[in-house]
Amino acid sequence: MRSALRRVLPCAHWLPGQNMRYTPHTRFDNNSTLTLHSMNEAETKFTIERIESIQRRTLSLACFRTTRHADFRFTPGHYARLGLGHDSDVVWRPYSIASAANSGHLEFQITLVPGGAFSELFAKAEIGDTIRVDRRCFGFLTLDQLASGGSLWLLATGTGLAPFLSIIADAATWARHTRVILVHSVRHAAELMPDAIDTAVSHLPESERQRLSVISIVTRESAPDALGARLGILIQSGALEKKAGLCLDPSGSRVMLCGNPEMIREVRQLLKDRGFAAGRRGTPGQFSAEGYWQR
After folding, report:
1. Are 66 and 90 members of one domain?
2. Number of domains the chain is built from
3. Is residue 264 predicted with pLDDT exceeding 90?
4. What gap in Å lies between CA 202 and CA 198, rounded to an integer?
5. What burial letters (b/e) apply to 223-260, b meaning 16+ CB within 10 Å?
6. E strand or H helix at 268, and its extent?
7. Which of 73, 105, 138 is the last residue of a domain?
8. What are phi and psi of 75, to 5 degrees?
9. Tell me: the pLDDT tens digits for 180-231?
10. How many CA atoms lie within 13 A of 162 on its CB side?
11. 92, 109, 138: which is the final residue of a domain?
């Protein structure tokens, strides 16, 4: 649990906690959060929320929104544990929170994996269905892991974009950094989410939105205005810096990584070779990373 990658891989095997109890004697409060009333609420480890919307963007990619318990708190960049299933058969998985910290609901992105336990349950989910949300939030992909100042590079593959949507929606991001470069790498153009990025920053002043640069990467087909190679190759060749119009160096750059483990390993090493230091607890650095492999 000490590195971002090692911290998240075991999540694919998490099971419901032994002390997580659920009772059928429940009711909806204000037509939103399903609250457990048959036991002391402080004893429960999760709340029962309701799926408000599902956007199936491709056969394997979906975005969804749930209700949010009034007591649930998180920092942009955190992930939540979500549970689907019935009683003792609940399957738990970690998903980064894509919504703003002050939003009244929670938003997530999911890659549906054939044969994946959570994926198969979600594929059958409908609007109005219930979903468990752990009362705690997790992760270290937060701004306090980085030294303030300079340009902030947010490098994501696939649904690794989710925590960065929450981060760019947060006013603290723009107070700490002069520019933000959001890089989203996917295999196919249909997996890009420019609409989600636009929505995340729609509430910000124009002066701050102008400080955001979005770079798209599509690796398995050509796409207009998108780069076409892996992130690691683009960093090594200098093509990513050329596209951004900025140098990627530890003196003026801060970097966050979120995505598949292979990208994390490759880019982490490239950053270290350039003199970047990872943030540690109590010691902000020049980069931080969170990897995942969901099923």
Report:
1. yes
2. 2
3. yes
4. 6
5. beebbebbbbebbeeeebbebbebebebeebbbbbbbb
6. helix 261-273
7. 138
8. -105, 140
9. 999 999 999 999 999 999 999 999 999 999 999 999 999 999 999 999 999 9
10. 27
11. 138
